[in-house]
Design goal:
Elements (H helix, E strand, L loop, with lengths): L1 H6 L24 H5 L7 H11 L5 E3 L18 E7 L4 E7 L7 E3 L6 E3 L2 E5 L6 H5 L9 H4 L3 E9 H8 L10 E2 L1 H10 L9 E5 L2 H5 L4 H9 L7 E2 L3 H9 L4 E4 L15 H5 L7 E3 L4 H10 L3 E6 L9 E3 L3 E3 L2 E3 L6 H7 L4
Length: 347
């Protein structure tokens, strides 16, 4: 039994049989395997299978929220700033951006969030990476460059909690500590006949971007100034952790600001497990409105999704800019190499 476990992927070991569910680290320090972490589940075979089964009509939608939409970010973050600068006496123009990826659609990278370690005062990031390593600009361990090399592509599945709650008469604000329960997710999956597969990318829509569009400027400013913001999200429980692990997701995302409910309503903080413990990307502030409409129209809640992270070594987070193609999402943040690979186009 012990030899069998040594030879199998740690991602295939049931949650309750893990030696330490808080630290499922793979690869040697500084290696590509370590840097990819759970994205290593997105093998060519998994991505090819997702493309073959999910790309049917060629329709596309983006899940990237406008960079300037969240003009009133919280937690001391600054809004996006953009300048257009003339080049060659106005013959051409260049763009200059100053922005925090966390104030719009983005993937939390492995350098974003740390975890506590029993018996020591210093928190660590995925793989045991220290804050000193992250501050060292010559050190790009567990940086975003590992994700950017091949991009994030595979089968996406949408849990449209916002539509389901509306149908059930459940009223809530996404700027509260309203929690999406595991039982809710499982009920929605059953109603929509969603069967999860190894390597899936899970999306949970709770309606943040929809509600933000209805808020007044005064309400947005009030949120920005609030020193104790409230964010609705997925519940942080041991059962949720067990389910996320056992369903073998490669990444998770939402339109929620923190993905999980914030502030924490228990002694469990999902980010400590999912990012620092498992190396699984967390997408936040994704604009899922167009995707939800497409899924409802086709009565299908799975799709192909692709996203090319910002190819900047050593950064903690990246703009996401993915897009859904035919109930699939194809990101064009930097270039179309991933599209060329999936669709075998030339030129």
């Amino acid at each position: 039994m012990a030899d069998s476990k040594l030879s199998q992927s740690p991602y295939d070991i049931p949650y309750d049989e893990l030696a330490n569910p808080r630290q499922v680290w793979v690869g040697e320090p500084g290696s590509e395997e370590e840097g990819k972490a759970k994205l290593g589940m997105l093998t060519p075979e998994v991505v090819h299978g997702a493309a073959a089964s999910e790309i049917r009509t060629g329709r596309r939608v983006t899940m990237g929220w406008t960079l300037t939409e969240l003009g009133y970010p919280n937690l001391g973050r600054q809004p996006c700033k953009h300048r257009i600068v003339p080049l060659l006496d106005g013959l051409a123009f260049d763009d200059y951006y100053e922005f925090n990826p966390q104030q719009s659609s983005q993937w939390d990278g492995l350098r974003h969030f740390s975890q506590t370690v029993p018996g020591q005062s210093e928190r660590v990031f995925y793989g045991g990476t220290t804050a000193a390593e992250i501050y060292d600009r010559k050190n790009d361990r567990i940086g975003m460059q590992h994700w950017a090399k091949e991009g994030i592509a595979g089968r996406g599945v949408l849990i449209d909690y916002a539509s389901w709650a509306k149908k059930k008469g459940i009223k809530y604000s996404t700027f509260s500590t309203h929690q999406v329960r595991l039982s809710d997710i499982q009920e929605i999956a059953k109603e929509c006949e969603i069967e999860f597969k190894k390597g899936d990318i899970l999306f949970v829509r709770i309606g943040v971007t929809e509600e933000w569009d209805t808020m007044t400027e005064a309400q947005k400013q009030e949120y920005s100034n609030n020193s104790k913001p409230l964010h609705a999200g997925v519940e942080a429980t041991e059962d949720m952790l067990r389910w996320l692990w056992n369903e073998k997701f490669a990444a998770i995302a939402s339109d929620a600001i923190s993905w999980e409910v914030y502030p924490p309503q228990s002694d469990i903080f999902l980010h400590e497990y999912v990012l620092a413990g498992w190396g699984m990307p967390i997408g936040e502030l994704f604009d899922l409105e167009a995707l939800a409409r497409m899924c409802i129209e086709h009565k299908r809640w799975s799709f192909f999704v692709a996203s090319i992270p910002l190819n900047m070594p050593g950064v903690p987070a990246t703009p996401k800019a993915p897009e859904v193609l035919d109930q699939s999402n194809i990101s064009k943040f930097q270039h179309a190499s991933i599209v060329m690979d999936v669709f075998e186009t030339r030129g």
